[in-house]
Automatic annotation (TrEMBL), chains A, B, C, D:
The active site is at 160 (proton donor). InterPro entries: GH, GH39_cat, Glyco_hydro_39, Glycosyl_Hydrolase_39. This is Beta-xylosidase A. Its EC number is 3.2.1.37. One of its GO terms (molecular function) is xylan 1,4-beta-xylosidase activity. It comes from Thermoclostridium stercorarium. It is an enzyme of class 3 (hydrolase). Belongs to the glycosyl hydrolase 39 family.
Amino acid sequence: MAREITIPAAGKPFKNNATFCVGSGRLGLALQKEYIDHLKIVQERIHFKYIRGHGLFCDDVGIYRETEEDGKHVAYYNFTYLDRIIDSFLEHDIRPFLELGFMPEKLKSGEQTIFYWKGNTTPPVSYEKWAELVETTLAHLIDRYGAEEVITWPVEVWNEPNIAFWAGTMEEYFKLYEYSAKRERVDPNKVGGPVICGIETEKWLRAFFEHCIENNLPLDFVSRHCYTVGKPVRKGQFIYHEIFSPTYMIEELKETRKIMADYPQIANLPLHITEFNSSYVPVCPVHDTTFQAAYIARILSEAGEYADSYSYWTFSDVFEEYDVPRSAFHGGFGLVALNSIKKPVFHTFEFFANAGKELLYRDENLIVTRDDKRYVIIGWNYHDTRKGEPGPDKEYVLSIPSIGQQAILIKKQVGGNYANPLQTWSNLGKPRTLNKEQRKILMAASEPLQTDVKLFDEKGFYKVKLTIQCNHLYMLEILPVKDFTDTYDGFEPDEFFGLE
Amino acid sequence: MAREITIPAAGKPFKNNATFCVGSGRLGLALQKEYIDHLKIVQERIHFKYIRGHGLFCDDVGIYRETEEDGKHVAYYNFTYLDRIIDSFLEHDIRPFLELGFMPEKLKSGEQTIFYWKGNTTPPVSYEKWAELVETTLAHLIDRYGAEEVITWPVEVWNEPNIAFWAGTMEEYFKLYEYSAKRERVDPNKVGGPVICGIETEKWLRAFFEHCIENNLPLDFVSRHCYTVGKPVRKGQFIYHEIFSPTYMIEELKETRKIMADYPQIANLPLHITEFNSSYVPVCPVHDTTFQAAYIARILSEAGEYADSYSYWTFSDVFEEYDVPRSAFHGGFGLVALNSIKKPVFHTFEFFANAGKELLYRDENLIVTRDDKRYVIIGWNYHDTRKGEPGPDKEYVLSIPSIGQQAILIKKQVGGNYANPLQTWSNLGKPRTLNKEQRKILMAASEPLQTDVKLFDEKGFYKVKLTIQCNHLYMLEILPVKDFTDTYDGFEPDEFFGLE
Amino acid sequence: MAREITIPAAGKPFKNNATFCVGSGRLGLALQKEYIDHLKIVQERIHFKYIRGHGLFCDDVGIYRETEEDGKHVAYYNFTYLDRIIDSFLEHDIRPFLELGFMPEKLKSGEQTIFYWKGNTTPPVSYEKWAELVETTLAHLIDRYGAEEVITWPVEVWNEPNIAFWAGTMEEYFKLYEYSAKRERVDPNKVGGPVICGIETEKWLRAFFEHCIENNLPLDFVSRHCYTVGKPVRKGQFIYHEIFSPTYMIEELKETRKIMADYPQIANLPLHITEFNSSYVPVCPVHDTTFQAAYIARILSEAGEYADSYSYWTFSDVFEEYDVPRSAFHGGFGLVALNSIKKPVFHTFEFFANAGKELLYRDENLIVTRDDKRYVIIGWNYHDTRKGEPGPDKEYVLSIPSIGQQAILIKKQVGGNYANPLQTWSNLGKPRTLNKEQRKILMAASEPLQTDVKLFDEKGFYKVKLTIQCNHLYMLEILPVKDFTDTYDGFEPDEFFGLE
Amino acid sequence: MAREITIPAAGKPFKNNATFCVGSGRLGLALQKEYIDHLKIVQERIHFKYIRGHGLFCDDVGIYRETEEDGKHVAYYNFTYLDRIIDSFLEHDIRPFLELGFMPEKLKSGEQTIFYWKGNTTPPVSYEKWAELVETTLAHLIDRYGAEEVITWPVEVWNEPNIAFWAGTMEEYFKLYEYSAKRERVDPNKVGGPVICGIETEKWLRAFFEHCIENNLPLDFVSRHCYTVGKPVRKGQFIYHEIFSPTYMIEELKETRKIMADYPQIANLPLHITEFNSSYVPVCPVHDTTFQAAYIARILSEAGEYADSYSYWTFSDVFEEYDVPRSAFHGGFGLVALNSIKKPVFHTFEFFANAGKELLYRDENLIVTRDDKRYVIIGWNYHDTRKGEPGPDKEYVLSIPSIGQQAILIKKQVGGNYANPLQTWSNLGKPRTLNKEQRKILMAASEPLQTDVKLFDEKGFYKVKLTIQCNHLYMLEILPVKDFTDTYDGFEPDEFFGLE
């Protein structure tokens, strides 16, 4: 049965932080042409404000070196690659959300590394040298890009110190935070932590907050990560999981806010989810599916009520944590697959980037938003079909307050045969790398189906029916129309072969 | 009832001359940026070999001038614009099919003109000066572009001398032909005529052939025009007609070939239809419809059996014969509407440009073609809905000889909600000129719907079902596929959420 | 003998209006690709704010038409081309300085025309219809581009009504002004006149001012034109003149200001020179020379003291007043020659577009300007060599207040072998139209010679020697430099083969 | 004293192999955007046929991996990056000159590595697995790009096995060669070696030749490297050397040919110098100087007499052998410096790429070449100024057989203030990384000075004077000109202000 809903004419501000920040493969990959190609697409169609990736201080970015002077090892800072990377970010109107890590070869205190690309996770052999590295880097950025620009770039200390990303203890992380945050306070960047993933959350948050308060450390925002899947199950080159309800993430946000609320100094700080996704591995097929597009839409519809940002991990499949990708589609994190193919979830962000500033209606499958003379409706219907049959359609009959005698409804559809390049790639035989013809086919196959119809005011409302099939995503845009038909002298509808 | 057809494995060469030549607004318009923008699109997606437009010698191209020397008027030839025009043709890999006309101001013998842009249609005041103009122009082109290039450009003498394009008599046309064809024989371009439209066809063709034979005049090809509509009925700014069956044009071609066959010297000459379309006026809505896409497909499917080219009139709505166009859609001739919007019939040519070289099957609604490892099927279903209800669907079940165990079928659809920008423009209120947002909506609305499915060999055949709705056009491409699925260790279809 | 000059550290604002506006061929030419190509170059390198051309209401732009309704002729307004033209202006970040004229075919009261392209110069057959045309056009522009944008576009009534551009009397011009200015007052565009050229200046200005004052007509700015040559002498396809001193134009500006000063309501109005150049014909070689580059520099150095703009006539050789140009170089008005070749005077505007906001020094051959941390010096040395031998070099030794221990001086030179494509074209044999190789040679030949040297603070000053040869133009830019040489461990100057 | 030389009208073929191949940083760097930017510039202006770099099998290209199947390690080949790299080569119309090396992590037999990027130099732990890697890679390339294409790509086995690039013995290299060359013989690529640098040349060449002959191994070409400097002397971050005469390289080529001549099976094989340069370290300033431009010109003028190619090491400063480059200019190998700045020696290759096919004259400072209707003269004057004062100018007066009554001489100059961005960078303070303004200044500063003059036939000859200053390089192009001056009615030279 269709739900009949009368949309109110006014609502409340839509807290939509979908485009505040996006994740990236390690910064060294930002030198790659393919990375920049994807960034260009993402910025043209979605336009994120910030970008965050690991590896700022890893050796492939090349910043920290030592030279011998008079028999002593002296720090040498090389910003050739960092400048190139930041230049290309700014060219695409995106700014770095700086993550301080991991440990340069010359400052490491041990051999523990993470990932194929071997990010060293050990505490610095000298916290003073680390602090100097942070300070020198920020000072260089200000020198090159100007303080007015650089102070708008948030700074996070390390990544997920509560798991294998940090070979030290919690106390050692706090020490690292202290050295990092204090020094860089010289310039007024916003600094935050503890960047944890959802393991021992409460313990870490409380300890971190209390440490900062007691030691009067700078803390401008709180950050953490959210992934919404169960234990990884490896099968060959893939990893599969149970996938939790998207409300799982909403609950995590609420819980975090609740813990923060216990500390008056912290209660009202911004909360940045500096990574989120369903699966946290780059070889899980869910990322490439239309299910993901609908699933993430549910999160984007509500997360802004609790968090100031939630940074999708990641914008591109140019990514090497689990080695060089082995095929065009492989379950990578990206909004964009290799060869610049947009995945279904790309459009989730594109649609939310286009949402109106006012929220008129929201349920578990639909939001209705508006700007002055324009409605944007986004609908989704995720269903974990791995557990059995497809879920039922969601049907709506909406009565929307008219914004003019006549309007156009433009509908964009993701799901099934549309904007589903994973299926087309399967139909092409799942080729490892694509040739030109395959790329062209997939490029066309990755765009939503766009159709449009006329709407007419009926007693102050437009009537819009919407059926959302299982694992589909829709955006409906309504724009007022001035009809010029009467100005066409001699216009006879019949002679236009069925034109409406 | 669906027609069940078994396609043979081999056929005969598909005589497909759809991309040999295309028509253009007068050559002076080729200086416009919008014209070049459209040409770029057409060449990227269709790639015609030749382009033909009126007005080579009209005053806006600026070739023929006179200056005073010692009190005498002397010819002065200015090739500034001609060179710019031809340069931009060659840049887009298209060559001129030269039409000699109309009369420059300084050579006219009377005041008769045609069109808003006032092409002078009178015989030359001096045939010698005309011949010198022709000869000088061709010599200049050879000087600039090289003989090897220029001799591949066919030359036609004047346009439709049997109606208002020529203010002289038939005999005067023959005289013009003689002066033009003889002189320019100096260089070995192919020359032809009589470029008539379908009025008094037989009389003109026979008289022209006999005149050429008797006077031993050069004649390298025969050319004429075909339009397939009845009398124009003006209603306000539009003109409507009865539209004949597309076979009307096929019959005209057969008749022309029959007349040619009576003259041994002429029987085997190339026959170029240097203009064709349904309606011959640039304010007839049929040009903008999906009906036109299907209707023209029927002509392209067979015309190559009789004619060596058939040049669609025209590639672009940058056109001024009936004054500056008054709105984005206005019934213009173009494959491309103003603002670079592709019309439905654009895809007819795009699809035929992609047809295979071998013809396996043809009926009134379908052709099946192939190249070595690739099938291309084009289907259409035109129906003049102005006479009443929509026509019935055409349904097919095709058995196509397998070219591999597995294949992909890529289907492109034009009609209804797809590739139908005229309807979207109507939904937008029929705006006279488009703003950026409207352009973007229409740009997306003008592409065919592309979907794809897997095909599997069943006893040596692929089974393909196709339903062609009224006034729709389809292209189906079948490509063999090597399936790599087995190389994906751990691949579990369920985990891909319904991936097939 | 070199002039030794000590430049002061501070000066006064440099009244530099060089980039306020530039002239254009008739607006119908703005549809041409070549026109847009040139506009792009000009905007990238100079960036004018406004553009002004004739022919807004001429028939090729297609705005004013009439249709028959119930046997009556009714105005029909077609904005297809106007919208396209304004769109492309705004795309290149330039705005129209609207000139109302000339007379549409359907509103003309006589047959007088001007130019090859036959602009009709007669008063309207109905002043009411004219006023409606003006009003409807402005209302359309506001509807499409928004009032906030459109009201920044100045509006001038007609062009040079004191000579052959206006077939009416002075009184009829005042009537036209009244109808135009009153009606369009509906929206608050700035309106002005009388757009005269330098014939009977005082008579026209006084009569116009008095008429406006007496009749309380809107008058937001005063406009006139300045050309600085004597009687035209035709020789074949060229026209030559005596060329006056550039101070001739400065005197005209002063005189105009003096006349304005007699009317309190007018004394402080902006004065726009909506056309200026040396010669007023598009077949005078002076426009293409390095002499012109130096000559115009002298005008730009001082004209801002008296006029709020001075619009160089014109930015491009895409121009048809004297027929289609007959050759690559032909004495056209453009800053850019056909085929996108920059003329020497292009660089005059480029250099002044880069001038500093503060004027430190000015004489007849040199200005020294600065911004915060940057000097720009422009020097010129024009000399009419037609009267005999080249003029002497101008030699300077400048002492410029230091802006840092070390600086770089970047010198750009126009003249002689540099940025002198007219000479290279002559060396190529003066080809009528250019082939690709010739274009490439000329493209390189049209850029100034750029060289650079180090400057060092000597007792608070940089010493800069400058020799300006006859008919040369220089721009010297001084930027402070931080010298990193000491950070290069192991740097031995000798090993860099003479590096300084 | 100027040398007076009469150039003959005909000569012999100019054996000019300057553009056959060019060197590259390790192939993994070909994923970088900056690398591709430089490749684009190099191909547009020089257009090399092949490109050769190390590291095909290094782990960052990601080809060789192992997976566990049933407890066994099984080879897994990943061509994601290789395909991307080759795709971008072919997009820029350049083909790989394949160098087989270095050793993948999983096949290494020891820990020895070379360079900052740690190429493993040890023999394979299994020669069979190595051979399978070679074979699988070539088979994949053929599968993707077609045999017709791939068999034109030469294959070299390893790099400089006679020094630290190979941790094995000579015999082990021969074994590697045998395994590599035999297996890949399956497809008919050309294979060669021994890729030695100039240490123990004769010993290695004779042993290698004899080994191949005795064992009947495939050997399609001989390859070696040539560098022309003495022992490296490190000073801080730079390395300096004695630089030998360019004839040193010519002598090496002669010696190699002499050794080859002793073996009939080898005497006539192609000889490819797959690396050459002056200094063999990427931190030697000579690479960035105008001296280098002149010095390399001398080699290019003659090396083709002895070698079938000589591949400049390298096209770009995107290079990491000695760590990430520390500054814009740093003595890297590239023709193009970071930020797409062309170095002086870039133009050496550009000039030789434009040389005529016929050699009319050659001495130690000059070649005169021609094509049908075009002369190209290249002159150079290198001098090692580190040893004292600049060398004397080289002065020529050439009498060149006329190719028409009139001609244009286009002169391009490198040296001193022209095309010398190293000096401009020094004037800018030697910034480590460049900002936009600095890039723009350097971009302009890196182009040769182009000037042109008329030449006239004097008794069958053109007289051309040329003075080549110390460490300058010139290209003079002479093209016949048709003079149209007489067609300009009214042309008066005086009125063009000194036009010649």
